[in-house]
Amino acid sequence: MQYSGMIRDIRFLILCALIILSSQPGLAAKRLSMPEVLAASSAADWRPLDPENTLYVELPTGRVVIELAPAFAPLHVTNIKTLTRAGYFNGLSIIREQDNYVAQWGDPENRHPLPAGIGKVKAEFDSSLPPHMPFTRLPDGDVYAPQVGFSDGLPVARSDALHKVWLAHCYGMVGVGRDLDPESGSGAEMYVVIGHAPRHLDRNVALVGRVIKGVELLSSLPRGSAEMGFYTKTEKPLPIQSIRVAADVPAAQRSNLEVIRTDTPTFAALIESRRNRPEDFFKVPAARIDLCNVPIAVRERPAR
Amino acid sequence: MQYSGMIRDIRFLILCALIILSSQPGLAAKRLSMPEVLAASSAADWRPLDPENTLYVELPTGRVVIELAPAFAPLHVTNIKTLTRAGYFNGLSIIREQDNYVAQWGDPENRHPLPAGIGKVKAEFDSSLPPHMPFTRLPDGDVYAPQVGFSDGLPVARSDALHKVWLAHCYGMVGVGRDLDPESGSGAEMYVVIGHAPRHLDRNVALVGRVIKGVELLSSLPRGSAEMGFYTKTEKPLPIQSIRVAADVPAAQRSNLEVIRTDTPTFAALIESRRNRPEDFFKVPAARIDLCNVPIAVRERPAR
User: Fold this and answer.
1) What's the sign of the alpha-carbon dihedral A213, A216, A217, A223?
2) What DSSP designation does A222 have?
3) How far, in Å, CA of A15 to CA of B116, rounded?
4) Residues 223-252, chain A, touching B (beta carbon < 8 A)
5) What is the ipTM score, two decimals?
6) pTM of this prediction?
7) Does A6 touch chain B (CB under 8 A)?
Protein backbone atom coordinates (compact mmCIF):
# COMPACT_ATOMS: atom_id res chain seq x y z
CA MET A 1 0.00 0.00 0.00
CA GLN A 2 2.99 2.27 0.48
CA TYR A 3 3.65 1.54 -3.17
CA SER A 4 0.09 2.35 -4.16
CA GLY A 5 0.32 5.60 -2.20
CA MET A 6 3.51 6.53 -4.04
CA ILE A 7 1.84 5.74 -7.37
CA ARG A 8 -1.01 8.07 -6.39
CA ASP A 9 1.39 10.83 -5.45
CA ILE A 10 3.23 10.43 -8.73
CA ARG A 11 -0.05 10.47 -10.67
CA PHE A 12 -1.06 13.61 -8.81
CA LEU A 13 2.22 15.28 -9.75
CA ILE A 14 1.76 14.28 -13.39
CA LEU A 15 -1.78 15.66 -13.35
CA CYS A 16 -0.52 18.93 -11.85
CA ALA A 17 2.13 19.12 -14.53
CA LEU A 18 -0.45 18.54 -17.28
CA ILE A 19 -2.72 21.24 -15.90
CA ILE A 20 0.20 23.67 -15.77
CA LEU A 21 1.39 22.73 -19.29
CA SER A 22 -2.09 23.14 -20.76
CA SER A 23 -2.49 26.64 -19.40
CA GLN A 24 -1.06 30.02 -20.30
CA PRO A 25 2.69 30.18 -19.64
CA GLY A 26 3.24 30.87 -15.98
CA LEU A 27 -0.45 30.66 -15.06
CA ALA A 28 -2.38 27.68 -13.68
CA ALA A 29 -5.51 26.89 -15.70
CA LYS A 30 -8.72 28.08 -14.11
CA ARG A 31 -10.74 25.15 -12.81
CA LEU A 32 -14.30 25.07 -14.12
CA SER A 33 -17.32 24.57 -11.91
CA MET A 34 -20.00 22.04 -12.84
CA PRO A 35 -22.53 24.84 -13.60
CA GLU A 36 -19.98 26.37 -15.97
CA VAL A 37 -19.52 23.01 -17.74
CA LEU A 38 -23.27 22.51 -18.04
CA ALA A 39 -23.85 26.06 -19.26
CA ALA A 40 -21.43 25.35 -22.11
CA SER A 41 -23.17 22.10 -23.09
CA SER A 42 -25.07 21.68 -26.35
CA ALA A 43 -28.40 19.97 -26.98
CA ALA A 44 -26.50 16.91 -28.23
CA ASP A 45 -24.97 16.45 -24.77
CA TRP A 46 -28.39 15.49 -23.40
CA ARG A 47 -30.74 12.59 -24.02
CA PRO A 48 -34.43 12.14 -23.34
CA LEU A 49 -35.79 9.36 -21.13
CA ASP A 50 -37.46 6.39 -22.81
CA PRO A 51 -41.09 6.53 -21.56
CA GLU A 52 -41.31 2.76 -21.87
CA ASN A 53 -38.49 2.39 -19.33
CA THR A 54 -39.36 5.21 -16.96
CA LEU A 55 -41.42 4.84 -13.78
CA TYR A 56 -43.33 7.52 -11.93
CA VAL A 57 -43.76 6.84 -8.23
CA GLU A 58 -46.52 9.18 -7.09
CA LEU A 59 -46.32 10.05 -3.39
CA PRO A 60 -48.51 12.49 -1.45
CA THR A 61 -45.41 14.73 -1.41
CA GLY A 62 -44.64 14.58 -5.13
CA ARG A 63 -43.29 12.42 -7.91
CA VAL A 64 -40.19 10.24 -7.93
CA VAL A 65 -38.89 9.50 -11.44
CA ILE A 66 -36.97 6.25 -11.97
CA GLU A 67 -35.06 5.30 -15.11
CA LEU A 68 -35.06 1.54 -15.52
CA ALA A 69 -32.03 -0.40 -16.73
CA PRO A 70 -33.29 -3.17 -19.02
CA ALA A 71 -29.77 -3.67 -20.42
CA PHE A 72 -28.60 -4.90 -17.01
CA ALA A 73 -31.66 -6.63 -15.54
CA PRO A 74 -34.09 -7.41 -18.39
CA LEU A 75 -36.10 -10.07 -16.55
CA HIS A 76 -36.52 -7.96 -13.42
CA VAL A 77 -37.46 -4.91 -15.48
CA THR A 78 -40.07 -6.92 -17.35
CA ASN A 79 -41.48 -8.15 -14.05
CA ILE A 80 -41.56 -4.64 -12.58
CA LYS A 81 -43.39 -3.27 -15.60
CA THR A 82 -45.91 -6.12 -15.45
CA LEU A 83 -46.47 -5.45 -11.74
CA THR A 84 -46.74 -1.72 -12.40
CA ARG A 85 -49.21 -2.10 -15.26
CA ALA A 86 -51.35 -4.45 -13.16
CA GLY A 87 -51.64 -1.68 -10.56
CA TYR A 88 -49.86 -3.87 -8.04
CA PHE A 89 -48.01 -1.03 -6.25
CA ASN A 90 -50.95 1.39 -6.06
CA GLY A 91 -51.95 1.85 -2.43
CA LEU A 92 -48.90 0.13 -0.97
CA SER A 93 -46.52 2.09 1.28
CA ILE A 94 -42.92 2.87 2.05
CA ILE A 95 -42.42 0.08 4.59
CA ARG A 96 -38.77 0.55 5.49
CA GLU A 97 -36.61 3.62 6.02
CA GLN A 98 -33.18 2.74 7.36
CA ASP A 99 -30.85 5.63 8.02
CA ASN A 100 -27.77 5.83 5.79
CA TYR A 101 -29.02 2.82 3.84
CA VAL A 102 -32.31 2.34 2.00
CA ALA A 103 -35.96 3.34 1.57
CA GLN A 104 -38.05 0.35 0.56
CA TRP A 105 -41.58 -0.41 -0.59
CA GLY A 106 -43.48 -3.63 -0.97
CA ASP A 107 -46.30 -5.71 0.41
CA PRO A 108 -44.94 -7.83 3.27
CA GLU A 109 -48.46 -8.64 4.46
CA ASN A 110 -49.53 -9.89 1.02
CA ARG A 111 -52.46 -7.52 0.75
CA HIS A 112 -52.18 -7.40 -3.03
CA PRO A 113 -52.20 -10.61 -5.05
CA LEU A 114 -49.28 -10.99 -7.46
CA PRO A 115 -50.45 -10.71 -11.07
CA ALA A 116 -50.19 -13.79 -13.29
CA GLY A 117 -46.73 -14.54 -14.61
CA ILE A 118 -44.80 -12.98 -11.71
CA GLY A 119 -42.55 -15.33 -9.86
CA LYS A 120 -38.94 -16.01 -9.12
CA VAL A 121 -36.47 -14.55 -11.57
CA LYS A 122 -32.94 -15.49 -12.48
CA ALA A 123 -30.48 -13.59 -10.27
CA GLU A 124 -29.41 -10.73 -12.57
CA PHE A 125 -26.62 -9.53 -10.28
CA ASP A 126 -23.98 -9.09 -12.97
CA SER A 127 -23.67 -9.58 -16.73
CA SER A 128 -21.10 -10.95 -19.12
CA LEU A 129 -19.09 -8.13 -20.65
CA PRO A 130 -20.62 -7.34 -24.02
CA PRO A 131 -18.12 -6.88 -26.88
CA HIS A 132 -18.84 -3.16 -27.33
CA MET A 133 -20.03 -1.76 -24.04
CA PRO A 134 -20.09 2.03 -23.81
CA PHE A 135 -17.81 2.79 -20.87
CA THR A 136 -16.50 6.11 -19.62
CA ARG A 137 -13.89 4.92 -17.22
CA LEU A 138 -12.91 6.92 -14.15
CA PRO A 139 -9.17 7.45 -13.71
CA ASP A 140 -8.88 7.21 -9.93
CA GLY A 141 -9.64 3.59 -9.12
CA ASP A 142 -12.12 2.09 -6.72
CA VAL A 143 -11.97 0.20 -3.44
CA TYR A 144 -14.37 -2.54 -4.55
CA ALA A 145 -13.79 -3.25 -8.24
CA PRO A 146 -10.92 -3.28 -10.73
CA GLN A 147 -12.62 -0.69 -12.97
CA VAL A 148 -15.49 1.75 -12.52
CA GLY A 149 -17.19 4.30 -14.70
CA PHE A 150 -20.39 5.04 -16.56
CA SER A 151 -22.35 3.15 -19.16
CA ASP A 152 -25.44 4.72 -20.70
CA GLY A 153 -25.87 7.03 -17.72
CA LEU A 154 -25.46 4.40 -15.04
CA PRO A 155 -22.61 3.86 -12.58
CA VAL A 156 -21.00 0.51 -13.32
CA ALA A 157 -18.13 -1.62 -12.11
CA ARG A 158 -16.37 -4.20 -14.23
CA SER A 159 -13.68 -6.81 -14.18
CA ASP A 160 -11.90 -7.95 -17.30
CA ALA A 161 -10.57 -10.94 -15.35
CA LEU A 162 -14.12 -12.04 -14.56
CA HIS A 163 -15.43 -10.82 -17.96
CA LYS A 164 -18.25 -9.21 -16.03
CA VAL A 165 -19.94 -5.86 -15.57
CA TRP A 166 -22.43 -4.86 -12.91
CA LEU A 167 -24.35 -1.83 -11.70
CA ALA A 168 -22.94 -0.16 -8.58
CA HIS A 169 -24.88 0.69 -5.43
CA CYS A 170 -24.55 4.49 -5.52
CA TYR A 171 -26.93 6.95 -3.90
CA GLY A 172 -30.31 6.86 -5.70
CA MET A 173 -29.82 3.46 -7.28
CA VAL A 174 -32.91 1.23 -7.27
CA GLY A 175 -32.70 -2.45 -6.35
CA VAL A 176 -34.95 -5.43 -5.90
CA GLY A 177 -35.38 -6.78 -2.39
CA ARG A 178 -34.96 -10.51 -1.96
CA ASP A 179 -34.85 -13.21 0.72
CA LEU A 180 -31.85 -15.47 1.31
CA ASP A 181 -32.49 -17.36 -1.92
CA PRO A 182 -30.74 -15.31 -4.65
CA GLU A 183 -33.63 -16.00 -7.02
CA SER A 184 -36.35 -14.88 -4.61
CA GLY A 185 -36.55 -11.26 -5.77
CA SER A 186 -39.51 -10.83 -8.10
CA GLY A 187 -39.53 -7.02 -8.26
CA ALA A 188 -42.57 -6.74 -6.00
CA GLU A 189 -40.31 -5.27 -3.33
CA MET A 190 -37.92 -2.46 -4.30
CA TYR A 191 -35.46 -0.23 -2.48
CA VAL A 192 -33.63 3.01 -3.16
CA VAL A 193 -30.17 3.75 -1.75
CA ILE A 194 -30.36 6.82 0.53
CA GLY A 195 -26.94 6.76 2.19
CA HIS A 196 -23.27 6.16 1.70
CA ALA A 197 -22.90 3.72 -1.20
CA PRO A 198 -23.43 0.19 0.21
CA ARG A 199 -21.13 -1.34 -2.36
CA HIS A 200 -21.02 -4.68 -0.51
CA LEU A 201 -24.49 -5.25 -2.02
CA ASP A 202 -22.98 -5.15 -5.53
CA ARG A 203 -23.28 -8.55 -7.23
CA ASN A 204 -25.55 -9.74 -4.42
CA VAL A 205 -28.78 -7.99 -5.39
CA ALA A 206 -30.33 -7.01 -8.71
CA LEU A 207 -30.13 -3.30 -9.41
CA VAL A 208 -32.81 -2.26 -11.87
CA GLY A 209 -32.44 1.48 -12.34
CA ARG A 210 -31.77 4.87 -10.84
CA VAL A 211 -33.81 7.69 -9.37
CA ILE A 212 -33.57 10.58 -11.84
CA LYS A 213 -35.62 13.04 -9.83
CA GLY A 214 -37.25 13.23 -6.39
CA VAL A 215 -34.93 11.01 -4.37
CA GLU A 216 -35.19 13.58 -1.56
CA LEU A 217 -38.87 12.62 -1.15
CA LEU A 218 -37.64 9.17 -0.14
CA SER A 219 -34.49 10.10 1.77
CA SER A 220 -36.19 12.64 4.05
CA LEU A 221 -38.81 10.30 5.54
CA PRO A 222 -38.78 9.49 9.26
CA ARG A 223 -36.62 6.46 9.96
CA GLY A 224 -38.44 3.27 10.95
CA SER A 225 -37.82 2.20 14.54
CA ALA A 226 -37.97 -1.57 14.09
CA GLU A 227 -34.95 -3.64 13.17
CA MET A 228 -33.37 -2.72 9.81
CA GLY A 229 -35.48 0.45 9.67
CA PHE A 230 -38.83 -1.22 9.11
CA TYR A 231 -41.77 0.74 10.45
CA THR A 232 -43.64 -0.60 13.47
CA LYS A 233 -47.42 -1.02 13.55
CA THR A 234 -47.80 2.35 15.28
CA GLU A 235 -45.70 4.31 12.80
CA LYS A 236 -47.53 5.79 9.82
CA PRO A 237 -45.78 4.78 6.61
CA LEU A 238 -46.05 7.08 3.61
CA PRO A 239 -48.56 5.68 1.10
CA ILE A 240 -47.69 5.16 -2.55
CA GLN A 241 -50.57 6.60 -4.54
CA SER A 242 -49.46 4.86 -7.69
CA ILE A 243 -46.55 3.65 -9.74
CA ARG A 244 -46.95 4.02 -13.50
CA VAL A 245 -44.88 3.45 -16.60
CA ALA A 246 -44.36 6.90 -18.13
CA ALA A 247 -45.54 5.61 -21.53
CA ASP A 248 -48.98 4.97 -19.96
CA VAL A 249 -49.27 8.53 -18.66
CA PRO A 250 -50.83 11.22 -20.90
CA ALA A 251 -48.06 13.30 -22.49
CA ALA A 252 -49.18 16.47 -20.74
CA GLN A 253 -48.72 14.83 -17.34
CA ARG A 254 -45.27 13.46 -18.01
CA SER A 255 -42.12 14.86 -16.46
CA ASN A 256 -40.18 16.65 -19.14
CA LEU A 257 -36.64 15.66 -18.19
CA GLU A 258 -33.42 14.94 -19.96
CA VAL A 259 -30.23 13.36 -18.69
CA ILE A 260 -26.65 14.18 -19.54
CA ARG A 261 -24.97 11.71 -21.90
CA THR A 262 -22.05 10.00 -20.21
CA ASP A 263 -19.93 9.31 -23.31
CA THR A 264 -19.16 12.88 -24.39
CA PRO A 265 -16.37 15.46 -23.90
CA THR A 266 -18.88 17.48 -21.88
CA PHE A 267 -19.29 14.62 -19.40
CA ALA A 268 -15.51 14.20 -19.25
CA ALA A 269 -15.30 17.91 -18.43
CA LEU A 270 -17.99 17.47 -15.77
CA ILE A 271 -15.96 14.70 -14.15
CA GLU A 272 -12.86 16.90 -14.25
CA SER A 273 -14.80 19.80 -12.72
CA ARG A 274 -15.58 17.54 -9.76
CA ARG A 275 -12.08 16.05 -9.49
CA ASN A 276 -10.63 19.53 -9.25
CA ARG A 277 -13.22 21.92 -7.93
CA PRO A 278 -12.92 25.68 -8.29
CA GLU A 279 -10.01 27.15 -6.38
CA ASP A 280 -12.05 29.96 -4.82
CA PHE A 281 -13.19 27.50 -2.13
CA PHE A 282 -11.17 24.33 -2.71
CA LYS A 283 -7.62 25.26 -1.80
CA VAL A 284 -6.53 21.60 -1.90
CA PRO A 285 -8.14 19.95 -4.94
CA ALA A 286 -9.00 16.28 -4.43
CA ALA A 287 -7.48 15.58 -7.88
CA ARG A 288 -9.52 12.37 -7.86
CA ILE A 289 -13.12 11.25 -7.52
CA ASP A 290 -14.92 8.11 -6.56
CA LEU A 291 -17.69 6.65 -8.68
CA CYS A 292 -20.59 7.61 -6.46
CA ASN A 293 -19.52 11.24 -6.14
CA VAL A 294 -19.95 11.96 -9.85
CA PRO A 295 -23.31 13.67 -10.43
CA ILE A 296 -25.28 12.51 -13.47
CA ALA A 297 -26.91 15.80 -14.34
CA VAL A 298 -30.65 15.98 -15.05
CA ARG A 299 -32.59 19.02 -16.22
CA GLU A 300 -35.97 20.14 -17.47
CA ARG A 301 -36.00 19.73 -21.22
CA PRO A 302 -35.76 23.20 -22.75
CA ALA A 303 -38.29 24.25 -25.38
CA ARG A 304 -36.81 23.67 -28.86
CA MET B 1 -5.30 -0.24 -13.53
CA GLN B 2 -5.27 -3.70 -15.11
CA TYR B 3 -2.31 -4.36 -12.86
CA SER B 4 -4.15 -3.05 -9.80
CA GLY B 5 -7.13 -5.26 -10.68
CA MET B 6 -4.85 -8.28 -10.91
CA ILE B 7 -3.30 -7.39 -7.54
CA ARG B 8 -6.82 -7.26 -6.08
CA ASP B 9 -7.70 -10.63 -7.52
CA ILE B 10 -4.49 -12.14 -6.16
CA ARG B 11 -5.12 -10.60 -2.74
CA PHE B 12 -8.63 -11.99 -2.80
CA LEU B 13 -7.31 -15.47 -3.58
CA ILE B 14 -4.77 -15.21 -0.75
CA LEU B 15 -7.51 -14.11 1.63
CA CYS B 16 -9.69 -17.04 0.56
CA ALA B 17 -6.75 -19.37 1.10
CA LEU B 18 -6.15 -17.95 4.58
CA ILE B 19 -9.78 -18.36 5.52
CA ILE B 20 -9.72 -21.95 4.33
CA LEU B 21 -6.42 -22.70 6.12
CA SER B 22 -7.65 -21.22 9.39
CA SER B 23 -10.77 -23.35 9.44
CA GLN B 24 -11.48 -27.01 10.11
CA PRO B 25 -9.84 -29.22 7.50
CA GLY B 26 -11.97 -29.27 4.39
CA LEU B 27 -14.45 -26.69 5.64
CA ALA B 28 -14.56 -22.96 4.89
CA ALA B 29 -14.63 -20.81 8.04
CA LYS B 30 -18.04 -19.43 8.88
CA ARG B 31 -18.14 -15.68 8.35
CA LEU B 32 -19.18 -13.80 11.47
CA SER B 33 -21.85 -11.11 11.48
CA MET B 34 -21.24 -7.79 13.22
CA PRO B 35 -23.80 -8.63 15.96
CA GLU B 36 -21.88 -11.87 16.59
CA VAL B 37 -18.60 -9.95 16.89
CA LEU B 38 -20.13 -7.42 19.25
CA ALA B 39 -21.80 -10.11 21.36
CA ALA B 40 -18.36 -11.65 21.90
CA SER B 41 -16.79 -8.33 22.95
CA SER B 42 -15.59 -7.63 26.48
CA ALA B 43 -16.01 -4.50 28.59
CA ALA B 44 -12.42 -3.54 27.68
CA ASP B 45 -13.42 -3.28 24.01
CA TRP B 46 -15.51 -0.20 24.80
CA ARG B 47 -14.70 3.28 26.02
CA PRO B 48 -16.84 5.97 27.62
CA LEU B 49 -17.27 9.43 26.09
CA ASP B 50 -15.41 12.31 27.72
CA PRO B 51 -18.20 14.62 28.97
CA GLU B 52 -15.91 17.61 28.49
CA ASN B 53 -15.70 16.83 24.76
CA THR B 54 -19.27 15.69 24.11
CA LEU B 55 -22.06 17.93 22.85
CA TYR B 56 -25.79 17.40 23.21
CA VAL B 57 -27.85 19.03 20.48
CA GLU B 58 -31.41 19.10 21.80
CA LEU B 59 -34.04 19.16 19.06
CA PRO B 60 -37.83 18.99 19.46
CA THR B 61 -37.50 15.46 18.07
CA GLY B 62 -34.74 14.27 20.40
CA ARG B 63 -31.06 14.50 21.23
CA VAL B 64 -28.11 14.37 18.87
CA VAL B 65 -24.86 13.37 20.61
CA ILE B 66 -21.59 14.63 19.11
CA GLU B 67 -18.11 13.51 20.13
CA LEU B 68 -15.65 16.35 19.58
CA ALA B 69 -12.14 15.79 18.23
CA PRO B 70 -9.82 18.15 20.10
CA ALA B 71 -6.80 16.14 18.93
CA PHE B 72 -7.49 17.18 15.34
CA ALA B 73 -9.01 20.65 15.66
CA PRO B 74 -8.14 22.03 19.11
CA LEU B 75 -8.77 25.70 18.32
CA HIS B 76 -12.12 25.04 16.66
CA VAL B 77 -13.19 22.75 19.50
CA THR B 78 -12.27 25.43 22.05
CA ASN B 79 -14.30 27.97 20.08
CA ILE B 80 -17.28 25.64 19.83
CA LYS B 81 -17.26 24.94 23.55
CA THR B 82 -17.02 28.67 24.29
CA LEU B 83 -19.96 29.34 21.96
CA THR B 84 -21.91 26.46 23.49
CA ARG B 85 -21.29 27.55 27.09
CA ALA B 86 -22.32 31.11 26.20
CA GLY B 87 -25.68 29.72 25.03
CA TYR B 88 -24.95 30.97 21.52
CA PHE B 89 -26.71 28.09 19.72
CA ASN B 90 -29.83 27.98 21.89
CA GLY B 91 -32.83 29.05 19.83
CA LEU B 92 -31.05 28.93 16.48
CA SER B 93 -32.28 26.53 13.77
CA ILE B 94 -31.25 23.98 11.19
CA ILE B 95 -30.87 26.43 8.32
CA ARG B 96 -29.72 24.11 5.53
CA GLU B 97 -30.68 20.59 4.54
CA GLN B 98 -29.13 19.56 1.24
CA ASP B 99 -29.97 16.10 0.00
CA ASN B 100 -27.10 13.63 -0.10
CA TYR B 101 -24.81 16.25 1.43
CA VAL B 102 -25.20 18.13 4.73
CA ALA B 103 -27.49 19.40 7.48
CA GLN B 104 -26.25 22.72 8.83
CA TRP B 105 -27.00 25.12 11.64
CA GLY B 106 -25.91 28.65 12.34
CA ASP B 107 -27.04 32.24 12.52
CA PRO B 108 -26.79 33.73 9.02
CA GLU B 109 -28.91 36.72 10.05
CA ASN B 110 -26.68 37.51 13.03
CA ARG B 111 -29.50 37.35 15.53
CA HIS B 112 -27.13 36.22 18.28
CA PRO B 113 -24.05 38.25 19.10
CA LEU B 114 -20.80 36.28 19.11
CA PRO B 115 -19.42 35.93 22.64
CA ALA B 116 -16.13 37.64 23.46
CA GLY B 117 -13.03 35.88 22.22
CA ILE B 118 -14.65 34.21 19.19
CA GLY B 119 -13.15 35.11 15.88
CA LYS B 120 -11.27 33.69 12.98
CA VAL B 121 -9.34 30.55 13.71
CA LYS B 122 -6.32 28.99 12.06
CA ALA B 123 -7.45 26.56 9.33
CA GLU B 124 -7.16 23.19 11.10
CA PHE B 125 -7.75 21.14 7.95
CA ASP B 126 -4.96 18.63 8.50
CA SER B 127 -2.23 17.98 11.08
CA SER B 128 1.39 16.96 11.04
CA LEU B 129 1.73 13.23 11.65
CA PRO B 130 2.48 12.78 15.34
CA PRO B 131 5.27 10.29 16.12
CA HIS B 132 2.98 7.73 17.74
CA MET B 133 -0.49 8.09 16.28
CA PRO B 134 -2.88 5.24 17.00
CA PHE B 135 -3.87 3.98 13.57
CA THR B 136 -5.87 0.92 12.60
CA ARG B 137 -5.22 0.85 8.89
CA LEU B 138 -7.72 -0.57 6.44
CA PRO B 139 -6.28 -3.08 3.98
CA ASP B 140 -8.27 -2.19 0.86
CA GLY B 141 -7.02 1.23 -0.15
CA ASP B 142 -8.92 4.42 -0.82
CA VAL B 143 -9.72 6.55 -3.84
CA TYR B 144 -8.72 9.82 -2.20
CA ALA B 145 -5.76 9.20 0.11
CA PRO B 146 -2.70 6.96 0.28
CA GLN B 147 -3.80 5.44 3.61
CA VAL B 148 -7.05 5.35 5.55
CA GLY B 149 -8.14 3.86 8.84
CA PHE B 150 -9.19 4.75 12.35
CA SER B 151 -7.56 6.77 15.07
CA ASP B 152 -9.21 7.02 18.48
CA GLY B 153 -12.60 6.16 17.00
CA LEU B 154 -12.45 8.57 14.08
CA PRO B 155 -12.10 7.88 10.35
CA VAL B 156 -8.80 9.36 9.19
CA ALA B 157 -6.73 9.60 6.04
CA ARG B 158 -2.98 10.06 6.01
CA SER B 159 -0.04 10.51 3.76
CA ASP B 160 3.49 9.61 4.81
CA ALA B 161 4.78 11.60 1.84
CA LEU B 162 3.05 14.74 3.11
CA HIS B 163 3.66 13.78 6.77
CA LYS B 164 0.04 14.63 7.36
CA VAL B 165 -3.12 13.14 8.81
CA TRP B 166 -6.66 14.45 8.49
CA LEU B 167 -10.20 13.52 9.43
CA ALA B 168 -12.30 12.11 6.59
CA HIS B 169 -15.76 13.32 5.55
CA CYS B 170 -17.75 10.16 6.28
CA TYR B 171 -21.46 10.03 7.06
CA GLY B 172 -22.14 11.68 10.44
CA MET B 173 -18.92 13.67 10.57
CA VAL B 174 -19.28 17.21 11.91
CA GLY B 175 -17.55 20.14 10.23
CA VAL B 176 -17.29 23.89 10.55
CA GLY B 177 -18.84 26.00 7.81
CA ARG B 178 -16.68 28.74 6.37
CA ASP B 179 -16.63 31.37 3.65
CA LEU B 180 -14.04 31.49 0.87
CA ASP B 181 -11.33 32.58 3.29
CA PRO B 182 -9.95 29.35 4.80
CA GLU B 183 -9.67 31.04 8.19
CA SER B 184 -13.25 32.33 8.23
CA GLY B 185 -14.80 29.38 10.08
CA SER B 186 -15.24 30.26 13.74
CA GLY B 187 -17.39 27.28 14.75
CA ALA B 188 -20.56 29.37 14.92
CA GLU B 189 -21.83 27.50 11.85
CA MET B 190 -21.60 23.71 11.80
CA TYR B 191 -22.69 20.95 9.45
CA VAL B 192 -23.20 17.20 9.62
CA VAL B 193 -22.62 14.91 6.63
CA ILE B 194 -25.90 13.17 5.70
CA GLY B 195 -25.02 11.59 2.37
CA HIS B 196 -22.40 9.77 0.39
CA ALA B 197 -19.01 10.77 1.81
CA PRO B 198 -18.07 14.15 0.24
CA ARG B 199 -14.38 13.39 0.48
CA HIS B 200 -13.46 16.35 -1.76
CA LEU B 201 -14.09 18.47 1.33
CA ASP B 202 -11.23 16.71 3.14
CA ARG B 203 -8.37 19.12 3.84
CA ASN B 204 -10.57 22.03 2.78
CA VAL B 205 -12.76 22.36 5.85
CA ALA B 206 -12.17 21.74 9.55
CA LEU B 207 -13.83 18.59 10.82
CA VAL B 208 -14.40 18.80 14.56
CA GLY B 209 -16.12 15.57 15.56
CA ARG B 210 -18.66 12.91 14.79
CA VAL B 211 -22.31 12.25 15.54
CA ILE B 212 -22.39 9.30 17.94
CA LYS B 213 -26.16 9.07 18.22
CA GLY B 214 -29.22 10.67 16.62
CA VAL B 215 -27.88 11.49 13.15
CA GLU B 216 -31.23 10.30 11.77
CA LEU B 217 -32.89 13.29 13.46
CA LEU B 218 -30.81 15.48 11.15
CA SER B 219 -30.81 13.35 8.00
CA SER B 220 -34.60 12.91 7.87
CA LEU B 221 -35.53 16.60 7.77
CA PRO B 222 -37.27 18.08 4.72
CA ARG B 223 -34.74 19.31 2.19
CA GLY B 224 -34.44 23.08 1.79
CA SER B 225 -35.63 24.36 -1.57
CA ALA B 226 -33.23 27.27 -1.99
CA GLU B 227 -29.82 26.87 -3.60
CA MET B 228 -27.50 24.46 -1.78
CA GLY B 229 -30.42 23.22 0.34
CA PHE B 230 -30.90 26.37 2.39
CA TYR B 231 -34.45 26.88 3.61
CA THR B 232 -36.46 29.71 2.10
CA LYS B 233 -38.32 32.27 4.22
CA THR B 234 -41.55 30.30 3.90
CA GLU B 235 -40.08 26.96 4.99
CA LYS B 236 -40.14 26.22 8.72
CA PRO B 237 -36.68 25.23 9.88
CA LEU B 238 -36.37 22.93 12.86
CA PRO B 239 -35.38 24.90 15.97
CA ILE B 240 -32.41 23.95 18.12
CA GLN B 241 -33.61 24.07 21.70
CA SER B 242 -30.08 24.03 23.04
CA ILE B 243 -26.56 22.80 22.57
CA ARG B 244 -24.74 21.88 25.77
CA VAL B 245 -21.41 20.40 26.76
CA ALA B 246 -22.24 17.06 28.42
CA ALA B 247 -20.07 17.96 31.43
CA ASP B 248 -22.48 20.85 32.16
CA VAL B 249 -25.53 18.56 32.16
CA PRO B 250 -26.60 16.90 35.43
CA ALA B 251 -25.36 13.28 35.47
CA ALA B 252 -28.90 11.88 35.54
CA GLN B 253 -29.73 13.66 32.27
CA ARG B 254 -26.66 12.53 30.40
CA SER B 255 -26.74 9.95 27.63
CA ASN B 256 -25.10 6.81 28.92
CA LEU B 257 -23.21 5.71 25.82
CA GLU B 258 -19.97 3.97 25.08
CA VAL B 259 -18.09 3.61 21.82
CA ILE B 260 -16.13 0.68 20.52
CA ARG B 261 -12.35 1.05 20.73
CA THR B 262 -10.79 1.05 17.29
CA ASP B 263 -7.38 -0.38 18.22
CA THR B 264 -8.41 -3.86 19.41
CA PRO B 265 -8.73 -7.38 17.95
CA THR B 266 -12.49 -6.99 18.39
CA PHE B 267 -12.52 -3.97 16.08
CA ALA B 268 -10.33 -5.84 13.58
CA ALA B 269 -12.90 -8.66 13.68
CA LEU B 270 -15.68 -6.12 13.18
CA ILE B 271 -13.93 -4.79 10.07
CA GLU B 272 -13.50 -8.35 8.80
CA SER B 273 -17.19 -9.11 9.48
CA ARG B 274 -18.05 -6.22 7.16
CA ARG B 275 -15.47 -7.06 4.50
CA ASN B 276 -16.89 -10.56 4.24
CA ARG B 277 -20.47 -10.57 5.34
CA PRO B 278 -22.32 -13.74 6.31
CA GLU B 279 -22.77 -16.15 3.44
CA ASP B 280 -26.46 -16.76 4.11
CA PHE B 281 -27.24 -13.57 2.17
CA PHE B 282 -23.93 -12.45 0.67
CA LYS B 283 -23.10 -15.04 -1.95
CA VAL B 284 -20.30 -12.87 -3.38
CA PRO B 285 -18.37 -11.35 -0.47
CA ALA B 286 -16.97 -7.89 -1.17
CA ALA B 287 -13.67 -9.03 0.40
CA ARG B 288 -12.90 -5.34 0.87
CA ILE B 289 -14.37 -2.28 2.50
CA ASP B 290 -14.06 1.45 2.14
CA LEU B 291 -13.42 3.72 5.07
CA CYS B 292 -16.89 5.20 5.36
CA ASN B 293 -18.65 1.82 5.30
CA VAL B 294 -17.06 0.67 8.56
CA PRO B 295 -19.54 1.19 11.42
CA ILE B 296 -18.07 2.56 14.65
CA ALA B 297 -20.36 0.76 17.06
CA VAL B 298 -22.07 2.67 19.89
CA ARG B 299 -24.18 1.18 22.67
CA GLU B 300 -25.91 2.01 25.91
CA ARG B 301 -23.43 1.50 28.70
CA PRO B 302 -24.41 -1.67 30.54
CA ALA B 303 -24.80 -1.58 34.32
CA ARG B 304 -21.58 -2.83 35.95
Assistant:
1) positive
2) P
3) 45
4) 223
5) 0.90
6) 0.91
7) yes
